[in-house]
Amino acid sequence: MNEEIKTFTISIYTENNIGLLNRISAIFQRRHINIESLTTSQSEIEGVNRFVIVVNITEHQAKKIIGQIEKQVEAIKAYYHTDEETIFTESCMFKIKSNLLFEEPQIQNIIKESNTRIVTVNKEFFVLEKSGRRHEIETLRKELNTFGIMQFVRSGRIAVTKEEMKITEMLMAFNNQ
Amino acid sequence: MKETETLESKQASKGSTERISGSEAVVKCLIAEGVDILYGYPGGAIMPVYDALYKYQDQIHHVLTRHEQGAAHAAQGFARISGRVGVAMATSGPGATNLITGIADAQIDSTPLVCITGQVFSHLLGSDAFQETDIVGISTPVTKWSHQITKASEIPEVMAKAFYIAKSGRPGPVLIDITKDAQVSELDFKYEKCTGVRSYNPVPKLNNDTVQAAADIINAAKKPMIVWGQGVILGKAEEELKAVIEKAGIPAAWTIMGASAIPTSHPLNVGMVGMHGNYAPNVLTNQCDVLIAIGMRFDDRVTGKLETYAKQAKVIHFEIDPAEIDKNVKTDVAVLGDSKESLAALLPLLNENTHEGWLEEFKKLYAIEFEKVIKDDIHPTKEGLTMGEVLKEINKQSEGNAAIVSDVGQHQMIACRYSKFNKTKSNITSGGLGTMGFALPAAMGAKMAAPEREVVAIIGDGGFQMNIQELGTIFQTQIPVKIVVLNNEFLGMVRQWQQLFFDKRYASTEMTNPDFITIAKGYHLKTKKVTKREELAEAVKEMIASDSAYFLEVCVEKEDNVFPMIPAGASVSDIRLS
Q1: Where is the ACT domain (chain A) (predicted)?
Q2: Buried b (16+ CB within 10 A) or exposed e, A26-65
Q3: B70 and B439 in contact (C-beta within 8 Å)?
Q4: Out of 3.30.450.20, 3.10.129.10, 3.10.150.10, 3.40.50.970, which CATH number does the structure's domain B383-555 have?
């Protein structure tokens, strides 16, 4: 099996219960695997949550991790995918002093060229929002940083897979039992 | 838990409800699940449930242990000998945290437990209230499932789910934490047993193609070897395993947790694998052409160095838990499913065989082990008593019918190596976690679950002092359990390692012990102390014949070592005989 360390996106469908986050994160903690990002939200199925976790591990490790996650009573199904197998994005926000918007005309060019959205503007500050790949966000951050950023925040990765997830059929099968 | 319908479950199926308190509901759930004995210790946050237990004491017997850890281990002993779910109960805070070692032990050894803890009022959660601990958080990594109940109305459904999860699939411990307000408020009670949880698939569906693939490999094998584990016992697949072994003539070895599934005397039973297992199955693991693992998980104490473990062999793994496949050892064929069903499906596909020449190799290596190790262990010529000869005497007097409950250390390895097991579920020990202090409470639980069986606890002088307080429970409840302390005045296994690997620097392993006989007398137990060989047979005879609890101390040689031994990190075939 491939022992090369790669970025894997782990998708987990779960019941929406208190304490499950603890159970899942403990699986990574026990094996000393650093979680690069973790996002959880409602999935396409009503009442089923979806975790998207990004880790840098080997495929061998990824397989074992999936086994341990699926073993948890409240985890319905888990998958791992490489970057090539998913469509993914991150989102970020910048808070910047308002006077810079007028004093540094270059900022307006950066906003336009990078397809960044202005969320709000007031006397003291304005807020920008952008979604995209990590490198796009990083480029934007570096460009804006030269003028001074009051606050910057970036979300974890969210991802959908190119392959079909058979999860709905699984749940249907249970309901029909 | 006898699989008959109880009055309660009948009522539940009729759909009738009654208005009762949460605490009474907890007790009625236990009764509906067939629980007639539970172990525990009361305290503030669980008092309403104890009050309800008082009302139902004609239907459910609560055993007051002397420590919550004792309650957890007693519930484990109960579960291990009977295959039923063990139940332990404790209050919040220290009561709950004291259960944790037993819960962790049950998790790693796949023992079905339901642990119920009291919790502070829900409005106090997170306020650092008196005796508040986040026991759901603390227990998360060592439970199969855990849940906190904050409303009385949740009790029936959650309790039903707890029992279902604990005993189904690969069993394990479940912890249910119930806030005090949920115990004291009322609900409309109606109990329905849980039959499924949508996110949980306890038993993977057997794929007949994998069974055929396994049979093809086994039929073509010249030197096949089986290693079975506790999965055979948990799956009640002893008969199926025996049939497979006999039809295909395959030498079969066992892990410590699998001990007793097939009688010791069976000609194809070739002994224990692992660090202090038998010589032949360890050495021949690295010579077999097909290794068939059944309901075992390739623990590091079984495999030694993985890089040199059975590399020459095709590996077939019969297993219920998909997470175990390829976890430690890469398999050629994995047969996922319940062991009973899988082995039953395998049997008709196997060719009859005897593998006589191959079996002969096991016998040859056994002869070497007998000459170099076993002979001196069970027929010693030196003055000091050996642990092995004590076990031999217990086998003789109990006619191999005793359930042996061992603690952890040298005596445990000796007990597993030399016990004669005629019946399944006769070896109760802390295999995965290695919990000293396990045996005394576990033996109490085992004897209560199976009063018809002779239950003998084999304990070292170190482990005995880790839950020695349970002598109080034995005294109060008059459980006729037999307790053998093999006293070498050392933490023997650690001392052995110090001798072999730390140049005999005996750091903190020598014990200055109290007079155990005086202590046992304090609890009004029948006692005997043996210091000489000529006293041993009579003492063991008296102990086995006793109708009541019996405490036997045997003073054994202080610095004996357990061999064979696979040094940590060495290959199974580099097992040492001295």
Answers
A1: 9-88
A2: bbbeeeebeeebbebeebebeebbbbbbbbebebebbbbb
A3: no
A4: 3.40.50.970
So what's the pLDDT on residue B10?
A: 46
Contact B322 A71 (CB under 8 A): yes
Residue that is written with structure tokens 């959660």 in the block: B125
The third-level CATH classification (topology) of the domain covering B7-189 is Rossmann fold (3.40.50)
Nearest residue of chain A to residue B203 (CA atoms): A71
The owner of tokens 């032990």 is B105
Structure tokens that stand for B450 in this block: 């199976």
C-alpha distance from residue B542 to each of A95, B444, B538 (Å): 84, 20, 6
pLDDT band, very low/low/confident/very high, at B103 (cuts 50, 70, 90): very high
* H helix count then E strand count, chain B: 24, 20
**Complex prediction ipTM:** 0.91
| Pairing assessment for the beta strands B86-90 and B113-119 based on DSSP bridges | parallel
Select A89-154's CATH number: 1.10.10.60, 3.40.50.261, 3.90.550.10, 3.30.70.1150: 3.30.70.1150
Between CA B428 and CA B290 the distance in angstroms is 29
One-letter amino acid identity for B52? A
How many Å apart are CA A66 and CA A33, to the nearest integer?
13
Q: CB of B323 within 8 Å of any CB in chain A?
A: yes
> How far away is chain B from the Cα of A64, in angstroms, using its nearest Cα?
6
Residues 18-77 of A with CB under 8 A from B: 18-19, 22-23, 26, 30, 63-64, 67-68, 70-71, 73-76
Query: pTM of the predicted model, to two decimals?
Result: 0.95
- Write down the domain spans for chain A: 6-87+159-175, 89-154
- Cβ–Cβ below 8 Å for A63 and B136: no
Residue B411 CB contacts under 8 Å (≥ 6 apart), including other chains = B387, B458, B459, B460, B486, B492
Contacts of A67 in chain B (CB under 8 A): 322-325, 327
